[in-house]
Design a protein that fits this description.
Blueprint (H helix, E strand, L loop, with lengths): L2 H4 L5 H4 L8 H10 L3 H10 L3 H13 L2
Helix pairs in contact: 3-5, 4-5
């Protein structure tokens, strides 16, 4: 699965705990590269590091 495909994943991913299997690197890339509010919300709630959760929160509030 490519980074572009991961950036468009639906909310159902959270139910499967898939975010827990994503590396720190992947989470950092997704939080900066995705425009999907669903993925950002997922990372804000389930991101492994404070950096990922905070960046996701920032992008959610900055994105109309």
């Amino acid at each position: 699965m490519s980074l572009a495909e991961l950036a468009q994943l639906p909310d159902a991913v959270a139910a499967n705990g898939a975010v827990d299997t994503w590396s720190d690197w992947l989470q950092r890339r997704l939080v900066d590269d995705t425009d999907s509010r669903d993925v950002l919300t997922l990372l804000e709630a389930h991101g492994r590091t404070r950096r990922v959760r905070g960046r996701a929160r920032h992008r959610l509030t900055a994105t109309p």
